[in-house]
Amino acid sequence: MTINIEGRLIGSQQKPFIIAEMSGNHNQSLEKALQIVEEAAKAGVDALKLQTYTADTMTLDINEGEFYIDNPDSLWKGTSYYDLYKEAYTPWEWHEPIFKRCRELGLIAFSSPFDETAVDFLETLNVPCYKIASFENTDIPLIEKVASTGKPLIISSGMATAAELDDSIRAARKAGCKEIILLKCTSTYPSSPENTNLQTLAHMRELFQCEVGLSDHTMGIGVGVASVALGASVIEKHFTTSRAEGGTDAAFSMEPAEMKSLVEETERAWLSLGSITYGPTKAEEPSLKDRRSLYVVKDIQAGEILTKENIRAIRPGFGLPPKHLKSVLGKVAKTSVKKGTPLSWELL
Questions:
Q1: CA 84 to mean position of chain CA atoms
Q2: What is the Cα Rg of the chain in Å?
């Protein structure tokens, strides 16, 4: 399975496709948003993703009951959903200049729409693909709307059961989406490595017959690197210029040096996978001479018997393999042999 997004191939035979998620880390500053784009490009990511919504398309302006965040473990406790989204949303008029700067810097730019109006708006900007966020992965009407564009679709799996993901993927395919990437995701912020369950990646690939990757909310790069070894061809991480500067998602976002390290180390992990192989690689062939082999370690006269005192397994590797030691002990030398001569059958 290989997916083409604006000339970038995504699949197991390609280096990992890295997405920097801006989210609300722009702090309502277009200048900061464009700075995030610049730093993402310098870090070497492949794509930058926005989120397209308004507070009114996300929820109701109610500051109590179930519309109020009172979970003591939440980064956003003590506010309402409406106020949070009002603070975090990316103004729609910013999308075009942000996407334009991304293109100038060689980044693929796209977004997560959160309702049908966002899809219609993003279509006017000719985005090359779409992302369905974890909390929307059961919103079948939204998925059908996005899938009807015929563009590649990335879906985060956060909280979804296998049956729910099956519903979503079937709906997407039926609505016209041919290329789907399913990202393993844990919907806690930040996430812990022990709740990431990367073993699911291979199972998702087989079960849903689609490309797979990771939407990662853990701190650091270890989980992202590990995911590559288990089949992830896409990795998405939240990104900011500086966690210290704040932002709705800054606490679990990567800084530029970390993102650069993720780009480099995931590519190293991918390169290391190679193929099933035994024996020396081309690069290892010169090292074969450094193996141990049987050598004459004392001068031997013609007719003298080979013993452990005059034959030993040492480096380098130009003599008989050490496995033949028992076979040659007790044999008679055919000719006189100097110390330092590699042992061969012709000498016996």
A1: 29
A2: 30
256: tokens are: 């530029």
Distance of CA 218 to the CA centre of its chain: 13
Residue among 175, 145, 139, 179 nearest 160 (CA): 139
Contact between 76 and 15 (Cβ < 8 Å): no
Confidence of residue 125 (pLDDT cuts 50, 70, 90): very high
Give the count of alpha carbons within 13 A of 176, CB side only: 8
Give the H/E segment covering residue 309: none
pLDDT over 90 (residue 1): no
Query: In the structure encoding, which two tokens stand for residue 196, read together?
Result: 């990431």
pTM listed for this prediction: 0.90
CA distance 30 to 316: 65
Spatial distance between the Cα atoms of 345 and 209, rounded to a whole number of angstroms:
57
Of 6, 49, 268, nearest to 156 (Cα)?
Answer: 49
For the purposes of burial, counting CB atoms within 10 Å of the CB of 267, is it exposed (0-12), middle (13-18) or buried (19 or more)? middle
Residue with structure tokens 């049956």?
163
Q: Give 273's contacts (C-beta < 8 A, 6+ positions apart).
A: 228, 229
pLDDT single digits (tens) 301-337? 999 999 999 999 999 999 999 999 999 999 999 999 9
Residue 25 token pair: 């880390």
| Beta carbons of 204 and 182 less than 8 angstroms apart | yes
Q: Is 327 helix (H, G, I), strand (E, B) or coil?
A: helix
Burial class (CB in 10 A: 0-12, 13-18, 19+), 124: exposed
3-class SS of residue 130: strand
Answer yes or no: are the C-beta atoms of 33 and 249 closer than 8 Å. Answer: no
